[in-house]
Design brief:
The protein is mainly alpha-helical. It has helices spanning about 5-15, 25-35, 40-50, 50-60, 70-85, 90-95, 100-120, 130-140, 150-160, 165-190, 200-230, 235-250. About 75% of the residues lie in helices and about 0% in strands.
Length: about 250
């Protein structure tokens, strides 16, 4: 993988991780377009550079990190995703190389985003008011993002709003929930990868995490500002158009 390919993947990761448009789906599509989808290091790289997005959450949500109960809420919400992901890991991994699955799920998720502003317009809840049970249910809904193209961010936002959080609080909880979710995936991949820490690949990983960090901070601000001003419809339309484009491209190939 060249430096420019690594740079492109890092930009895509940082931009899509916190927007409800599916980072995994975009990474699959971009790596397939580059002709690198089957390379072991590329697959590892796409997961490991999520560490940059984790650091972006720490910087963005620094003031919230001093609330002990918040750690417990995020932990409770993370457990369902971790458990389901561990039990069905092989099945979900088989789907990761399927642009068809990505295209279909992009469209389905886009339809859901188009309806969310209308369905949840009366939500006023804050993170501090979440019960343990509601936090766990958000985690169960987030686990749907194990299917490529669903989007972890979209699933977490939907779950948070379904369980009563208002827009900004839902976005903030989605950001915080990314830390254990992405952290577990990144550390596991780093531990299992036979090539990631080779001298030739470490500079690419460091660059990728740095670029993902910078772009992810921008993406988080875009989500909050855009959602409050325009709602989630622009993201929903983008997903639907992209999903249809992917399916048409596959039909022609």
């Amino acid at each position: 993988m060249s430096v420019w390919e690594a740079l492109l993947l890092a930009i895509v990761e940082g931009l899509t991780e916190f927007l409800p448009i599916s980072s995994t789906g975009h990474m699959i599509l971009v790596s397939a377009w580059l002709g690198r989808a089957e390379e072991a290091f590329v697959q590892d790289y796409e997961v490991i550079i999520q560490g940059g997005a984790i650091l972006a959450v720490v910087v963005h949500s620094w003031k919230r990190l001093w609330q002990p109960r918040l750690y417990a809420l995020v932990g409770v919400a993370f457990l369902p995703t971790a458990g389901i992901g561990f039990l069905a890991k092989e099945g979900f991994e088989r789907l990761l190389g399927s642009p068809v699955v990505v295209g279909i799920n992009l469209i389905l998720g886009g339809v859901v985003l188009l309806g969310m502003d209308r369905w949840f317009s009366d939500r006023r809840g804050q993170i501090e008011g979440l019960s343990w049970g509601k936090a766990a249910l958000i985690g169960v809904i987030q686990s749907l993002s194990l299917f490529p193209g669903i989007s972890r961010a979209a699933a977490a936002l939907f779950g948070a709003q379904l369980l009563g959080l208002e827009k900004r609080a839902a976005a903030e909880f989605s950001f915080l929930l990314a830390v254990p979710t992405l952290g577990a995936a990144s550390l596991y991949k780093l531990w299992k990868s036979p090539v990631a820490l080779s001298p030739d690949n470490v500079p690419l990983l460091m660059m990728g995490m740095g670029v993902a960090f910078i772009v992810a901070i921008v993406a988080m601000r875009i989500l909050i500002a855009s959602w409050q001003r325009y709602g989630l419809a622009p993201f929903g339309m983008y997903r639907i158009v992209l999903g249809i484009g992917v399916l048409l491209w596959l039909l022609r190939s």
